[in-house]
Amino acid sequence: INPVSPYALEGFPSFGLAASRQMLGDEGWQGEDNERQFVSLYLLILERIRDTNGLIMGVVERSLGTEPVVIHRLLDSLQDAGVMKKDDVKTLLENLRLYANYFGLAEPVVRQRLPAILASMALQDRRKDAVRSLSGGLRRRLLVARALVNEPELLLLDEPTVGLDPHARHLLWERLRHLRNTGRTLLLSTHYMDEAEQLCDQLVIMDRGQIIAQGSPQTLIAAHAPGEIIEIFAPVTLHPELLSSIEGARSHESLADCLLVFVQRAEPHMPRLLQHFAAQAQILARRSTLEDVYLKLTGRRLAEQT
Question: Quick check: helix, strand or coil at residue 248?
Fold first, then answer.
């Protein structure tokens, strides 16, 4: 990451990147309305780069809000932005060549560029495979490879790992980390908190279309869910008794399926809890996560919105 002047998105209060090459995550954009908002953000970014409204309108119907969104001094042309799109045509290599043609790249440039793109997504051995035959994880890596054909400085990723099995998710995470380390800025939307915590340098957490928190994963956890968590799966009727047996609890969240108790350290409380409630409850001690941050800020889990 090379810190330079901040790049701000106007229309979002105090929202900006403190460095030019980071991975920025948006959490909490769920449901049809919020998906439209995120598409609108992408389109607003693109159409403010240059006067390209006609092209963008031909791809997705524009849905503009009342606030302008501008990336300052980062992009000089539409070809500086990479967008993942979905088409199932030809072999993997032919598919990438087709996308290269969209950008008018000369054949010598294509021959020189595609091997590096394939290597960046670990797809060298799959270049002759038919796109339709690829697994979900391989297809997702191909989508990212397509977005790299024009060597963008900014890569927009909307839920890149949704529907993938854990192994495929981790493989794609590894590839995205590699891209970040090559000097690109990645704008990522996700509702997987572990994904945001693992990948993102900076986060913007949104709820009902509003920014409710922003910062690095570590900063957000330290600010909103410090210490450790005692997670207790027990009937709601047992929650008051459980809370009374935990001295020094910082706060708690009582949910339909469990009780979360925020403490400085969980270990001192565990023997007593297990002695008195092991037969009635399942009791776990763990570190705080971004899921806990979201719960503290909104009063509900992200999964409850899906």
Answer: coil
